[in-house]
Amino acid sequence: MRVLWFILSPLIALAVGLFFLGLSRRIMARIHWRYGPPLYQPLIDILRQFTQKSVSHGRLFDIGIVLSLAGSIVLIEFLPFGGVCPMSSSGGMLVILYVMLLMPLGVALSGGEAANPNTSIGISRNLILAMGYELPLLLVLLALMTRYETISIVEIVSAQREAGPAFVSFPLVLSGVAYLLILPAVLGVRPFEVVQAPQEIASGPVAEYGGPYLALVTIQHALSLFIGTSLFVNLLWGGASNPVVLILKMLVVFVLVLFVNASFPRLRVEQAVRYLWRWPSLAALAGLILVATIGR
Amino acid sequence: MDRNELMKWIKAPAKMAHKYSLNAVYFCTGCGIIEVPPTITSRWDAERFGVVPSATPRHANLFLITGYVSVKTLRAIIRTYEQMPEPKYTVGFGSCTINGGMYWDSYNTIKRLDKYIPIDGYIAGCMPRPEAIFVAVTHLWTLIDKDMADGYKRYRKNYAAYRANQEMVLGKLEWPPLFPKETGTGTADGAAMAMDVASHTTGRTG
Amino acid sequence: MNLPLAIRLGSTFQSIDVESGSSGRLVVQVPGESVVPVLTFLKEEGYGYLQLVSCVDWIDRGALQLVYLLSCYTEDEIGGEEGSQEVFVKTNVPRGRASVPSAIGVYEIAEPYEREIHELYGVHFEGHPRLTPLFLERDYEIPPFRKDFDTKQYVADVFDSVPPVKEEG
Question: B105 and C151 in contact by Cβ < 8 A?
Fold first, then answer.
């Protein structure tokens, strides 16, 4: 049964991620007072991209996006999905912290091969933004690890099922607020959409990806949406006892993030890092210190 | 979606996907580009047709040549067109691509775009309204359904003739032939074209 | 019409012609060699902004006429009545040997205008650092904006002679 969940959970994550992508285009269109594409538009896009014939820039160019996708799929195995978690007994949050960096690094690897100045600029912005949100994210995770005295996500979820969700309990509410403030950066939506800025740097790191590579990038984007929201719901909103409730909670978080996306312009990368290292980091640091000194 | 449409999806999913997911290269070639922002924003929403502007030619499969084409722009258009992945569709927008339009006796614009890159269809007008763009998109869908939108296949088959025409107007071209076997040179190969830097699509630096 | 300025101009330079143009603007006709001294004089008078350099092809007189439009930013620098904020400086050059000293030493902004006029009319500017084409890519025997350039013949020769691509089968 566990083996089945190993195969099934990336597929379900992909389905949910694609649904989120389509939903984001539809909701943004409705906010703009227009109609928007059908909900299954990302599926059509991926099918079209797989059937196109594009050029490759070398062996490293092919490997980079595969590495990024591999990082995402591995990460999904570590996340609890309702009542099940395929890799529940190995390391939990520490593994997540470092595997999360494989996603921008893979794209950086292939982008370096592409020899396009827009790609280089996009990659540097991607890595700088990752550095920006890794600091408050680390502080939030440290606070959670200290509070629940474990590094396993499954134990955090079950502790919250007894005691209530983490972001309404006193010291961790600061960590919850900090995580909410950096969630748009983790997901790559406005105001932190600087990485894939179409008008400025010709879509940044993915500028040279044609045909099938672009399909893999879209899949990777869908998976990273799933990972970002699922991590938040599992760590701070108590997870769920079955997958349906988990997906509903992720939907609520995602729609809130979409509303933030609709209301903000794009920050420059140094403005973004300055913001991310200021108030969210301070809130997360305060949460960590309070948890370490006061306890529960 | 009725049964007819569902059968089409099952029989030829790739063709249907190409119809309903047209990414247009966001390349403003001439004065017709003023009609594109109203088309893709809220008033006449092009995204419900699946038409979305894309920032790089590598992501795109629709090229709208909007308006007159001067000799310098032709250089950039050819480089952009050759970077797009196949299958790709080109639509000439406005009467300047058909026969020169308002600039029919100009010393610096090309008169018939069809001689230099293959075109799948034209939208007549000066400038066509956004509703005309939507009619053109639905016509393109019909052409794709009947397998008649084969501009890229014609380009590959008659590449020698197209390149000869391009060299007649532009002089010596800086990039190697895209399909070397068809021109008979056989020395360059596709990977050389792949190292084309996308940011140099403006052609000669000005 | 800025009368004191007209009198000063007339007394400083010989062989120039000062008259009143539209809305009281001064029009100064100078021969080709003394363009730069007149421009320097007017710049010191307070006309610190060269708006444009333009060219007119008077084919029946056999001359190309260069027009420099000078203006000043505020009226206090100049004084005088209405219309004295702008001054035209015009010079005629023969069509066969069109050559004029460049105005870059006086107004640096003249560089792209002179480059464009060289490309489209064939006027050579002595002392211009970079007289390369700005818009055009091909070579033209007669510069395209001259009135004896036959555009229809050029289009028929160059663009209509490109054969359409024929499909076989």
Answer: yes
